[in-house]
Amino acid sequence: MSKLVKKQGDLFLPWSGATVAEGQFEDLETDFTILQELGGVSGVVSVDALIQEQWRRFIAFEMDEQSRSDLAGSLQRRASRPPRTTWKSSRPVHVVRVAPTIQSGSNEESIESENNDWVLDPMKLLQRLERQGTTVEERRIAVLFAETTAFSSDQLPPLLNGLAAFIDEYRFSTTKKIVNAVGSAIRKFGMNMPPEQFPRFAAWFGPSETETISHDVELELVKAVVWRLSYQPVDAVAPIVELLESLRSLATDYLTPRLVLQKNYAAIALNATIATVLLASQVGQNEVAVQMAKIIREINIDWFQQQVMRRLKNLSVSLRSENAEAGEKLELLVKNLF
Question: How many domains does the chain have?
């Protein structure tokens, strides 16, 4: 059974994945972390960390110091460059983020004859994602490890196709470990999709004839858009009509006092609103953002309005480092909204 553990004031590592020596975490601002055991993979957890207003996710392994040392040595020997590894200090759970470039070996090599080393090889992860006959469990594990693996530009199209196929097939699942993997696939896809894939991403918000996606999947979708637009702004020529409407519709549905005041739904309302305003500001559709601000004022929940304002202001500042024009557009829009 999956377990959820919340910890106050934990450590965490920089998003860059650069190596951080043990005990050098004091300067990292971390509000809290969530450790989520990955069902079916003993001793492996995913880690959500809220670091300087941004959510980050990592893979963590429960291991003693000797095992930790053995793993680091193994990675060093296998990688074509030193692996990017970060250890969590003074805790029983240690965080490892690995994105090495590893030679994949012969394409003729049989997948069935391999051991678990395939989770560290980008090419073999792609084979698990797209190869016929791969089990659901292998695809699930491949998705989880693909999230923290670096892929080349040539590997990006098959990666996105494999992730999209997994999301298409399992986005309505109610099995916790599958839902976790769908979230992982959404995050990786969202950060790497080219603009022409926006309509495909937007379609995942919608229901089927008989089912709707879970709140967990809704949250992952809107968070993925926030992350993407915070680091890779889009312009007005991007095909954003479907995505903007999906975000606006979801935000509007959740912006009611009854839902905002429930902690399980407040995060969806907040991130859907942030994503809508971010996208609207970047493509010049400020009237959509004005509509969102009007609804927020009408529900009259001060703390929620303040949280939206604070997040947007902070994003306008951080966005300038990626794209000065996009940051300035958002800053001006926020000033006029609230």
Answer: 3
